[in-house]
Amino acid sequence: QVQLVESGGGLVQTGGSLRLSCAVSGSTFSKNSMDWYRQAPGKQREWVAGIFSDGRTTYADSVKGRFTISRDNAKNTVYLQMNSLKPDDTAVYYCRRAGGYWGQGTQVTVSS
Hints:
- The relative contact order is 0.32.
- The chain has strands spanning about 5, 10-15, 20-25, 35-40, 45-50, 55-60, 65-70, 75-80, 90-95, 100, 105-110.
- The chain starts with a strand and ends with a strand.
- It contains no helices and eleven strands.
- The radius of gyration is 13 Å and the shape is globular.
- Strands 2, 4, 5, 6, 9, 10 and 11 form a seven-stranded mixed sheet that branches. Strands 1-3-8-7 form a four-stranded antiparallel sheet, with no helix packed on it.
- It is an all-beta fold and about 110 residues long.
- The chain is about 0% helix and about 55% strand.
């Protein structure tokens, strides 16, 4: 059974930083691409960043240059380092494994 557990969310001021983690169990982590999504109140869930099994990364334009996705295959964990946070980044952040597996989400709130 594949399980994803996010952590690291919280309340931060504009311009601050947070690092999200997503621990994956029950799968061959290193062989799968991983993505981060977010969903703000009243909005659709949107893709934020992705990392392939070979380490290549992609980002939404809205976070490019501010967020960094990375993975540690030894720890079966994917990270999202978020810098220069803005109030528009406020959302529940979810990680997703290829094949449609989702975590429960972690709340990120950026105060102005």
